[in-house]
C-alpha cells in the first residue's frame, strides 16, 4: 500500500518537474515564444475571419433590405402624388369642358336672339343607348316642348322626343333611327341656299351626312350648315356644324358635316325653340 503511495508521489513529482522545465524553457527562449505567439495569433485571426463571415453577410443583407424598404416607400409616395396630380388634372379638364360648353350655349343664345333658350344638365345617359338618346334634368315644369331642338357646344345634337314633369328625353342625331332626320341648309359657292336633311351619323369618321339635296351647286369646305326650319316644327338657322367634304356617288351627292358638338362629350344641353 505504501509502495503504491510513494509511486504516485514520484509520478506526480516527475510530471510537475516536466511542466516546470517546459515552461522555463519556453519563456526563456524568446524566439520560440515569438513563434508560438505568432502562430497562435494567426490561428485566432483565421478563426475570427471565418466566424465573422456570417455576421458580415447579415449586416450587408440588413443594409440591402433597408435600402429596398426605403425605395419601396419612396415609390409608393411618388405613385400617390402622381395619382393625385392625375385626378386633379382630370377634374380641371372636366371643368374646362363644362365651362366651354356653357360658354358656347351663351354665345348661341346671343346669336339667335331668342328668349326661349333653356340650359340643363345631362342626368342620365346609359352606355347601351350612348349614341341614341340621353336625359336632361328639366321638363314640363320649365315649359319644355317637343318643338324644341337640343344643342351642345354651340351645335344641334338632336330633338326633344319625350317630356315629363322634371326630365326630358333627347333623341340624338348620332342615332340610326328614322326620327333623327333634321331639315338643314347650307349656302353654295354662288350664294344660293341648298336644302337637304341630316340623315345619318358616321361613328367612325365622326361626321354627319346631309343628303337629299335640292341642288348640285358646289359647296366650299368650312361653310356653316344650319337648320332650315322646313319641317314646320324645329327652329330655323340654328348651327349644326361645318362642311367637311362633298361626296358624289352614282348621281347622288352627300355633304359630310363636322358637328360643332362632340357626341361623346355632352355634359350640358341647351334647348332652343318655342316652349308650349
TrEMBL record:
Pfam families, per the entry: MreC
Superkingdom assignment: Bacteria
Signal peptide limits: none
Protein name: Cell shape-determining protein MreC
Keyword annotations: Cell shape, Coiled coil, Membrane, Transmembrane, Transmembrane helix
PANTHER family according to UniProt: CELL SHAPE-DETERMINING PROTEIN MREC
Gene3D superfamilies: Rod shape-determining protein MreC, domain 1, Rod shape-determining protein MreC, domain 2
Family assignment from sequence similarity: Belongs to the MreC family.
Coiled-coil residue spans: 68-105
The keyword Ribonucleoprotein appears for this protein: no
Transmembrane annotation, as ranges: 6-27
GO terms (BP aspect): regulation of cell shape
Rod shape-determining protein MreC beta-barrel core domain ranges (all copies): 125-272
Function, in words: Involved in formation and maintenance of cell shape.
A GO cellular component entry from the record: plasma membrane
Stored InterPro entries: Cell/Rod_1, Cell/Rod_MreC_2, MreC, MreC_beta-barrel_core
Amino acid at each position: 500500500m505504501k509502495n503504491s503511495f510513494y509511486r504516485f508521489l514520484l509520478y506526480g513529482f516527475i510530471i510537475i518537474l516536466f511542466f516546470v522545465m517546459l515552461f522555463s524553457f519556453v519563456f526563456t527562449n524568446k524566439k520560440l515564444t515569438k513563434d508560438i505567439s505568432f502562430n497562435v495569433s494567426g490561428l485566432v485571426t483565421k478563426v475570427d475571419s471565418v466566424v465573422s463571415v456570417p455576421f458580415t453577410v447579415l449586416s450587408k443583407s440588413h443594409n440591402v433590405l433597408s435600402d429596398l424598404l426605403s425605395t419601396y416607400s419612396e415609390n409608393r409616395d411618388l405613385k400617390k402624388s402622381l395619382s393625385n396630380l392625375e385626378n386633379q388634372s382630370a377634374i380641371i379638364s372636366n371643368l374646362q369642358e363644362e365651362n366651354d360648353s356653357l360658354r358656347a350655349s351663351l354665345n348661341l343664345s346671343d346669336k339667335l336672339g331668342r328668349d326661349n333658350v333653356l340650359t340643363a344638365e345631362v342626368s342620365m345617359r346609359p352606355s347601351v343607348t350612348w349614341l341614341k338618346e340621353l336625359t336632361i334634368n328639366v321638363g314640363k315644369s320649365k315649359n319644355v316642348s317637343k318643338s324644341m331642338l337640343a344643342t351642345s357646344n354651340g351645335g344641334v345634337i338632336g330633338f326633344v322626343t319625350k317630356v315629363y314633369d322634371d326630365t326630358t328625353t333627347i333623341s340624338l342625331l348620332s342615332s340610326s333611327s328614322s326620327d333623327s332626320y333634321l331639315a338643314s341648309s347650307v349656302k353654295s359657292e354662288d350664294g344660293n341656299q341648298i336644302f337637304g336633311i341630316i340623315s345619318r351619323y358616321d361613328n367612325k369618321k365622326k361626321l354627319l351626312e346631309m343628303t337629299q339635296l335640292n341642288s348640285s351647286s358646289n359647296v366650299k369646305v368650312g361653310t356653316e350648315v344650319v337648320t332650315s326650319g322646313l319641317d314646320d316644327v324645329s327652329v330655323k338657322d340654328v348651327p349644326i356644324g361645318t362642311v367637311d367634304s362633298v361626296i358624289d356617288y352614282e348621281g347622288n351627292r352627300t355633304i359630310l358635316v363636322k358637328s360643332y358638338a362632340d357626341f361623346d362629350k355632352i355634359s350640358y344641353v341647351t334647348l332652343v325653340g318655342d316652349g308650349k
